[in-house]
Amino acid sequence: MADVMAPPRRRLPKMGDTTISLGLSVLVLLALAVFFVVPVIAILWRSFDTGAGYGLGNYVAALSDPRIWELVVNSLAVSGLSAFCAVTLAYFYAYALQRTHVVWKSALRMVVMLPLFAPSLIQAQGLIFLLGRNGIFNRFLGFDIEIYGFWGVAIANTLYTFPYAFLILSAALAVADARLYEGAIVMGARPFKIFRTVTLASTKFGIAAALFVAFSLSITDFGNAIVIGGNFDVLATEIYSKVIGQAQFHLGAVIGVILLVPAALSKLIVERISKKQHSQVTDKSVALQIRPNRKRDWLFGTYAGLIVGVFLSVPLIVVFASLVKLWPYNMSFTLQHYRFDVQNGTAPLWNSIGVAMATAFFGVIAVFAASIVTLKFRTPLSGPISFLATLPASIPGMVLGLGYVLAFNSLSNPLNFLYGTFPLIILLYIYYNHAQGYLITATSLKQISSTFDEASTMLGGSALRTLFKVTLPLLWPTLLGVGVFFFMRAMVSLSAVIFLITPQTQVAAVSVLQLADRGATNQAAAFSVCIMGIVILMLLLVRTVLWAAGARGVTLIR
Amino acid sequence: MDLDVKNTTKRYGHVTALSDLSLTIPAGSLTCFLGPSGCGKTTLLRVIAGLETAEEGQILLGEDDLSDTPPSERNFGVVFQSYSLFPNLTALRNVQYGLECRGWSRGRRRARAEEMLDLVHLRDQAGKLPEQMSGGQQQRIAIARALAPEPSLLLLDEPLSALDAKVRAELRSEIRSIQQKFGITTIMVTHDQNEALEMADQIVVLRDGQIEQVGAPRDLYAHPQTRFVADFIGAINLLDISANAAGRAQFGMQELHIEGPLNGATTLGLRPEAITLSDEPAGAENSLACTVTNTRFMGNLQHVELRPNGAPDQLLQVEMNGLAQTPRRGDQLLANFPANALLVLR
Ligand SMILES: Nc1ncnc2c1ncn2[C@@H]1O[C@H](COP(=O)(O)OP(=O)(O)OP(=O)(O)O)[C@@H](O)[C@H]1O
Ligand SMILES: [Mg+2]
Prior knowledge:
The complex is a heterodimer. Chain A is an all-alpha fold. Chain A has two domains: 21-45 and 337-558, MetI-like fold (Orthogonal Bundle); 80-234 and 262-280 and 292-330, MetI-like fold. In chain A, 70% of the residues lie in helices and 1% in strands. In chain A, strands 1-2 form a two-stranded antiparallel sheet. The model of chain A is unreliable at 1-16 (pLDDT under 50). Chain B is elongated. In chain B, the strands form five sheets. Chain B has a six-stranded mixed sheet with strand order 6-7-8-3-9-10, with helices on both faces. Chain B has a five-stranded antiparallel sheet with strand order 16-20-17-18-19, with no helix packed on it. A four-stranded antiparallel sheet of chain B has the order 2-1-4-5, covered by helices on one side. Chain B is an alpha+beta fold. Chain B contains eight helices and 21 strands. The model of chain B has no long low-confidence stretch (mean pLDDT 90). Chain A binds chain B through residues 3, 6, 8-9, 11-12, 16-17, 449, 451-452, 454-462, 465, 469-470, 473-474, and chain B through 6-7, 49-51, 53, 55-56, 58, 65, 67-68, 70-78, 80, 82, 84-89, 97-98, 101-102, 145-146, 149. The complex binds adenosine-5'-triphosphate and magnesium ion (MG). Magnesium ion is lined by residues 41-42 of chain B.
């Protein structure tokens, strides 16, 4: 009788423990809402706020100024050119590493990663020491090069985006179906024709993805443009001068929204593309064997050597400059710039280390919680969370940073007390890099079979026990890798935090900019060297830990 | 305590994996769920385990309704097809896992785990990680792990299908003897009929999310009620028949004698080993004149394929033991079988 009348039951979540899973889901969603959605809305809101009601007034005002169109053209041109150059150069470099027998491959791979270990503007710094008015070429070798302006920014951004393009292209070139190549050879195709019809064709998605990634990195970066741009302004520097120089937040917001368009579009396109890329190589593909070919190896070896020369020269000249008394007038050796007796002394460096550590720690917790909630708990909130978790990748750092200012500087925000403190900077770094961290974690988590969860559940384990006894022990190498990623980004990102910095909350990347701006180039160089040194030390440390623990195949550099 | 599944329905989107299914698993028995791929075996097992929630129906253990009990509190042991040992824990720690969850003291835990390892003859592997053990060893550890917390029900989802033939045969009898030793109520999913016939007290044949027939292995083999069951368990000749004017079974040009009424059935089953061959009439209840169309020699067995002269469109398979007779292709023979060898199938 009772069983006939039994009311329809609600579906249990996958792991039982309804309260925990719902509670955690709500927490994750709330955090994403407050620290990501609200700031983005704040900047949109502000861009429509004309002071006398809401409307398109700001846009009309901004767009009717011919200067803004000049900036748009500048931004598109310089980013387009550097994306094209970075991808072309990186393609052949990746080809050398993946498809030829050049020697010292792992060293070649490491050297071009160097730009990731320092603030983007180290490229501009290095270029100025090399090619600037007082640079080696002009001053000592008798050249007369004018580097400030369009070309300087283009070259600096090419160097800055090269490693990102390289990583994508390297992955695209790593997979190849030998059957296609054998088919082409059997049909009598010449090497160049094979390259054009098979290699290029099968990596076209990788090339397109690399182009868009490089483009959106360039267009949203402002460190290089401000240091080496001279009178050449772009959208990113304009936001900076509108907000910091003139306190015109509404115009900053408008330009931010304009900047958001190409950045978000490229991100969308990259996502589309990478889905196609994955379906290209099937399980029937046959791995490619690289044939011996001395001539080819010499050719690509020479090319790789040239690229390595360029990528070493920038950080080396910066190191060198940090060790001389007064570039270029007094080139005698000194360690005085490492005394950091300017501005806040070493405080920004220690601040950065602390902020980066905290970002790594809490960032890992945030993305791990988001992954668990979306993949393991299956509550109704899972869908919205996984959508929001990957969204930050489409928002340029400067735009999110400005959003933080607008959202948290407002007295009506109950979290206003966070404004001007380190925790807010840490939160910004976490949510700015949330998408990549989440994707890495979620991918690894998916590879851990759900059978382990079920086995644990059936043995009487609660969701929390499963988490701590099974999931975490399997996942920690990946999480450590994600931690390094957060650490690195927090050490080097400049554009995201530039608006949140106060004299009490200075970080190293911003110090480099300010010192370079004031003409204290040697001290700025010393700061950059310290940042790079710390990042590299951290990478080595974590590499050692992973090696000692026997964890293989964890990618640390992304 | 018996386990009762009552009127259970489970849907995935618009796929109905289980439809209004009811079943009793007697206490202390080993029940096999048998059926083709996609018929809902795994789904039924997972619903019983609580890993899936059915839209309708109840799971009762004795008098207790378990439908709302979360899986972690049902105290059921599960062995999965993929070994699913925790890769970061040693064999011993894996076996202790369920005991830790139940808050057993360290000493008791260890003693019980070692007892379980002895049971599966793997005491010497206690300190090894799963990746250092063979598939068969891992599956044994998984069984020990499932049994350690003294579950009231043991659920196995194709536990042997990832293993090679020899290990599989060993483990079959091992699982069966452990099950009988503890008298633990056990459900095992398989799509291997031999496994089910050898191990089970009761076989549940599933088809499209519904129960086709339930019975002891011998019952199912000797008295399949449907064409599907007859065909699925063992080899069988399916004879297309119609009822003639006298209401008896007409097979081509010939009438067949059956036991009991036809009840409108259009198919009769006839096991290949129930047929004997002779040159002269042998006084059997049924006797069909046939032509040999093919023979296959398989050592101790011979398979002979016959075309009945009275129903040339239907072939009969015959299985003969030994080599007393050696029919050749083209021979004319009589196929003899008793009336009770003809199974009336729905
Ligand atoms: N998670 C799921 N989502 C959607 N449909 C499912 C899911 N699991 C099972 N099904 C469907 O339910 C039906 C029964 O599946 P089930 O896994 O129970 O079959 P099975 O008898 O165990 O088959 P096999 O022998 O292949 O393991 C199938 O049609 C299957 O496609
Ligand atoms: Mg199954």
